[in-house]
Amino acid sequence: MGDLTRLRDHLRTLDRVVVAFSGGADSALLAWVANDTLGPERAVAVTAVSPSLAGSEHADCAALAASWGLRWVEVLTDEMLDAAYRRNDGDRCFWCKDALMDAVVPLVAPGAAHAGATVVLGVNCDDLGDHRPGQAAAAQRGAVFPLVEAGFTKADVRRCSLDLGLRTWDKPAAACLASRVPYGSPVTVSVLSRVERAEAALHDLGFRALRVRHYDDTARLEVPLEDLDRVVLLRGEVVAAVRRAGYRYVTLDLEGLRSGNLNAALGTVLDPADRPR
Q: Distance of CA 81 to CAs 24, 85, 99, 188, Å?
């Protein structure tokens, strides 16, 4: 079970940290606790800005940072310039986190504003059992995972966030936009933009948790099982909203929302030691 005291103690041991801050429940808790434990002089939240970050998530990072008094920095990442990332094989997330570390490591280099700080990511214990090559990329570059060290599962993150009064305690998971594109289909700015527009339109219809999976002209919608009836009830508005984003066909996945379910298409999961550098 996650232990807030252990988390604070671990952060004190690190002394100075740069938190990779996406605005999701995990990174939000880590950023808040780091700021509360170490203060803004020794804890800074950094948000990576790229086409794979939805504009609404970017705006929420800014709002959270302002509300919580975080020391907040934005960095531009260039994963879209990397052919290994764009081709979208099973190690796409490796190259994404590699680009993140390329942007963040200079902040902690000797002579930089946050020299000597440790880069920390909001990885929780449940994440360790999934196909997450990005974790290996970050760890190879010196990042650490304080939530794992303190034994936090996803449920622990939400429970602790609720106890601390953080509004992110029930925020739906919102992985990067590229996670909506099946492995083997190229990731492009236009594809990410189309996914973002479709999801934003569905959020406007009142759907909090959802995924728009991109299959060329077809959008496959995933929502929690309890929302399936509502999608059907609002069928006309849903179809119109998704078509306005650029899709021709709109389908509904009757199995409901499953974060990371595209990983099931991978035939073989590589050992982290075998990942490219």
A: 25, 8, 10, 10
